[in-house]
């Protein structure tokens, strides 16, 4: 009920483009984003609004620019043009239009949490310390506070029994759940997932998707690049389809999966959903 | 008195030499480690104006015989009105020389450091300095542990060169005893024993540290 309400507000505010990026209902606002690598355009004038509490999944075939789009959101990749606002704050470029100083950039980045396909845990730290590292050394939290919070999060992802284990002893699914807890520990305003289950053995995919589903039920804002169609359909508020760097379709999951408006998406779904 | 009895009666001289060697070694190797870490940090920046001269310096040092560096600091610097006594020249030469070796060892490991971990650190709001000291350096040290252990032994052996610039250390003690009583074989055998014992103890300590790294999955790297 509450969600319906916010969606209408945001929809009406969308008619005022410049302010839409600054309402506190919009978690992420992407405008006219373009990016090329070595002269090849990978993202072309991408516009995307993600409201607070929404789950947006990004689909598209390999090489369509999904990872690049996600990585631009936290400035791991620098776009050539366009703007990205996170919680109303522009990332990467300061008010004077210059590149952001590194410290400020780090602070804005910390408002997003990212989960990678290949986990990227820090192997010299045990599970608990992987989760507390950034809160202590980036946010300046006390050790006690960070550990208490980390234990809650490990509980949430079902990894509290492994708090003292080192990453090299964990399965892929366990690693990814720790990586999710690690990102959550920064209390980000939006979670970014880049194919979080693509590196996993099929029997381990479910445990990670279940955790992400729980997060969506708790109201986390998430942008998820995935190849899991059933999951996308179940969890999304909005599905975005990228094709050669263009968003060619954005719709609610029902419309997207049952009645897509482009031939390209229809073809894609025929191949993916058997 | 047998030759061994002569040496036994002069044991204080050996002990003094030994402690002097350990002092020089401890101080210079700590400084060398810090220099190696510092150079790795400077190489992180990838500003060619800094990294190119730094790498030339590191390679230049590595390709220089240690003894010549020690000579240069002791006999050459006074020409520029910088006077270091023998002891400080020795410590300084060891520190800089082995610092460059450490830097090169670290640099090699840094090249194969997984970029995904750096991206994860950036995504979690880490800035360069904290990322380096909390995440990159500890792993690089754990990973290069066997090479570092080797380098410690080289550095220990290099302290013996300092006898030539008149530093009173272990080899100098043996040298002076063998000269006074003309018993070179026995005097140097004793000294070899000292170097071996220290090296073996260091090897054992490094092995123990290996367990610490192995627990973190670092021994197959
Ligand atoms: N750092 C880079 N340098 C050069 N080209 C790049 C770089 N990163 C991505 N690309 C190219 O940009 C295009 C889009 O890549 P991207 O990784 O965003 O695709 P994707 O949709 O995530 O694909 P996948 O499903 O395979 O992960 C690809 O053609 C890729 O080769
Ligand atoms: Mg990708």
From TrEMBL, chain A:
Membrane topology annotation: Peripheral membrane protein
Stored CDD domains: ABC_HisP_GlnQ (cd03262)
Locations listed in the record: Cell inner membrane
InterPro entries per the UniProt record, alphabetical: AAA+_ATPase (IPR003593), ABC_ATPase_HisP-typ (IPR030679), ABC_transporter-like_ATP-bd (IPR003439), ABC_transporter-like_CS (IPR017871), MetN_ABC_transporter-like (IPR050086), P-loop_NTPase (IPR027417)
Domain of life: Bacteria
ABC transporter domain: residues covered: 28-269
Keywords: Amino-acid transport, ATP-binding, Cell membrane, Membrane, Nucleotide-binding, Transport
The keyword Lipid biosynthesis is annotated on this UniProt entry: no
Molecular function via GO: ABC-type amino acid transporter activity; ATP binding; ATP hydrolysis activity
Annotated segments matching region Disordered: 1-23
GO cellular component: plasma membrane
SUPFAM superfamilies in UniProt: P-loop containing nucleoside triphosphate hydrolases (SSF52540)
The family this protein is said to belong to: Belongs to the ABC transporter superfamily.
Name assigned to this protein: Amino acid ABC transporter ATP-binding protein
Source organism: Salinicola corii
Species lineage: Bacteria, Pseudomonadati, Pseudomonadota, Gammaproteobacteria, Oceanospirillales
Automatic annotation (TrEMBL), chain B:
Alphabetical list of InterPro entries matching this protein: AA_ABC_transptr_permease_3TM, ArtM/GltK/GlnP/TcyL/YhdX-like, MetI-like, MetI-like_sf
Keyword Transmembrane in record: yes
Main location: membrane
GO terms for cellular component: ATP-binding cassette (ABC) transporter complex
Any single biological process term in GO: amino acid transport
Keyword list, A-Z: Amino-acid transport, Cell membrane, Membrane, Transmembrane, Transmembrane helix, Transport
Short name of any one Pfam family annotated for the protein: BPD_transp_1
ABC transmembrane type-1 domain boundaries: 18-206
Parts of the chain that traverse the membrane: 24-43, 63-80, 86-103, 187-206
Subcellular location as annotated: Cell inner membrane; Cell membrane
Membrane disposition: Multi-pass membrane protein
SUPFAM superfamilies per UniProt: MetI-like
Gene Ontology molecular function, alphabetical: transmembrane transporter activity
Recorded family membership: Belongs to the binding-protein-dependent transport system permease family. HisMQ subfamily.
UniProt-recorded name of the protein: Amino acid ABC transporter permease
Organism from which the protein derives: Salinicola corii
